Amino acid sequence: MRREVRWERMFADELDAAFQECPVVYLPYGLCEPHGPQNALGMDGLRAHAYACRAAREHGGIVAPPFFWNVHELGIYAAWAHPLIGEATPWLTAVPPWLFFHEICYHVRSMDALGFKAILLFSGHDGPHGRDLKRLENLLQPHFAARLCFLTDASALRLEGFHHGGKIETPLLWAAEPDCVDTSRFPAPDDPGPHFAMGPDAREADRRLGEELIARFVSALAAKAKELLEAYDRLRPQRRPLTFEETERIWQEEIRPRMGEMASMCDTRPGQAPPPPESRWHHNWKVPKLD
Ligand SMILES: [Zn+2]
Hints:
By secondary structure, the chain is α/β, with parallel strands linked by helices. The protein has a domain at 23-163 and 214-265: Rossmann fold (3-Layer(aba) Sandwich). 41% of the residues lie in helices and 8% in strands. The chain has nine helices and six strands, in the order αβαββαβαβαβαααα. It has helices spanning 12-21, 43-59, 75-85, 97-113, 129-140, 153-156, 169-176, 207-235, 244-255; strands spanning 24-29, 62-63, 70-71, 94-95, 118-123, 147-152. β3, α3 and β4 (94-95) form a beta-alpha-beta unit. The longest helix is centred in the C-terminal third of the chain and has 29 residues, at 207-235. The radius of gyration is 19 Å and the shape is globular. The model has no long low-confidence stretch (mean pLDDT 96). The structure holds zinc ion.
């Protein structure tokens, strides 16, 4: 019998037993975002959830419900989207960085208050916010007993030649969720595009590569979870669950004032053109200054 590890599908006695056996929680993040017409929109969250479920099934732990809202649509992200997605309806589930990071503070609080010793956040959606997540991890850690680790694709594994929606990412979804990749949807070779942010090498996708790489992701996540548990047992941190009010204070006093320094809060990266005024991506491109 396959062991259920998906929190939302478990009964309380199953959660109690899984927690007793291994007090690790995986928090999978993604969003709905164009990755080429051959990939279902939920690519990043579906992958993150699949890797976390496999890590928990094979090595212990519980997988929290996946969170399909993530950073996009402004600054660097909009400048990237203009040439690659163009005017097609993007079907994005985007939130700004300040809302995403604020939300994470409460997700971590809730997991820590439940008594987990290790909280492993994994976002299948990568980008400048990946660097910010590491910063957020460092800012939050001193406030919680649970040991924290926030990862994205790039920080979990170095994948040479990785292109968004290309020959590496497509097989990752294909192997994880076979119904969510349909290669009959590749655009005609002479279609000038843009192709819904498909990677230039997507047609070389090989599902077996996805299986190999997923095994590596699962080992990397499980090894990190083990490291966090060992750190917890070594440090024996004092546990005092934070209130909502205390969590809000951490956000307001320690994290929000640093949002202006975050990599995801830049208008463009060097050499990147802003989306022109007629682009749908211009509308929300300019990153506001938080005061
Ligand atoms: Zn992706």
